[in-house]
Amino acid sequence: MHEHSIQLVYGGGTTGMMGEIARTLVQLSGPDAVMGVTPSALLTRERPGAPEEESHQPTKKIPASWRKRMGLTASGGGAGGGKGTGMAAGATTPDETAKSLLNKEYGHVTIVPDIQMRKRYMMELVRDGGAGSGFVALGGAIGTLDELMEVVSWNQMGVHRRGACMVNVEGYWDGVLQWMEKVIEEQFGGEHLKHILGSVTDAGEVVAWLKGYEEGRA
Questions:
Q1: Contact 76, 60 (CB under 8 A)
Q2: How far apart are the C-alpha atoms of 20 and 182, rounded to whole Å?
Q3: I need a surface site. Which of 17, 62, 127, 218 has the fewest CB within 10 A?
Q4: Which of 211, 61, 26 is closest to 139 using CA atoms?
Q5: Distance (Å, rounded) from C-alpha 12 to C-alpha 101?
């Protein structure tokens, strides 16, 4: 991202891959390169200073395979997932209840009232971003899958025109790819789904995939 001057919009957490990628990008490109968006209810779980007993995130090291593919070198934190995107430079906060803060280690963070506002605001930032903007899913759990499917659905409905790319390290997302083939085979969806939702096996391939998506859409 630093090499391509890409800005990051992500869920605002400070643990696992989300936090480590955000922190690394801030170190390389400065705090303006990162925009986190988090609901107020998750501040004690995903931001610095949260008591250990309040966190519902398991304390796990980032798997070595993911660390290598993502180019991460610092020690691991809790498990997590996130999205890398092109960010709209002049975006405003979603409503008067949101708060914007600056953290010198993790960049800018916008605190919103709830999870639905977070998803909508992140989508709008990416939708209004520059050329090659899009959604990227790393390894994650239910929340990552939920957000991934939602942005694909929004693309189908015409809410935005950005592609979504899964970083499929060691077959992590193979189940989703197989399910998508079944969806098309059973005629619940069309071949266009393969264009909207793609996958790469290495983080270094993401930028090229997003650019290719945009060129194919033009």
A1: yes
A2: 35
A3: 218
A4: 61
A5: 11
Q: Is beta strand 99-103 parallel, antiparallel or unpaired with respect to 107-112?
A: antiparallel
Residues in Cβ contact with 205 at an 8 Å cutoff, skipping those fewer than 6 apart: none
> Distance (Å, rounded) from C-alpha 191 to C-alpha 28?
39
User: What is the predicted pLDDT for the residue at 139?
Assistant: 92
Structure tokens at 96: 């008067």
Other residues' Cβ atoms within 10 Å of the Cβ of residue 124: 17
The reported pLDDT for the residue numbered 61 is 55
Report field, pTM of the whole predicted structure over 0.70: yes
Instruction: Return d(Cα 212, Cα 218) in angstroms, integer.
Output: 10
Query: pLDDT, tens digit, for every residue of 145-158?
Result: 999 999 999 999 99
Which H or E run includes 110? strand 107-112
* 93 burial level (CB within 10 Å; 0-12, 13-18, 19+): middle
Q: Which of 76, 9, 11 is nearest to 45 (CA)?
A: 11
Each residue's pLDDT tens digit, 66-96:
556 555 543 222 223 334 434 333 334 455 5
pLDDT at 136 over 80: yes
pLDDT in tens, 88-128: 333 344 555 556 777 788 999 999 999 999 999 999 999 99
Q: Distance (Å, rounded) from C-alpha 90 to C-alpha 106? A: 19
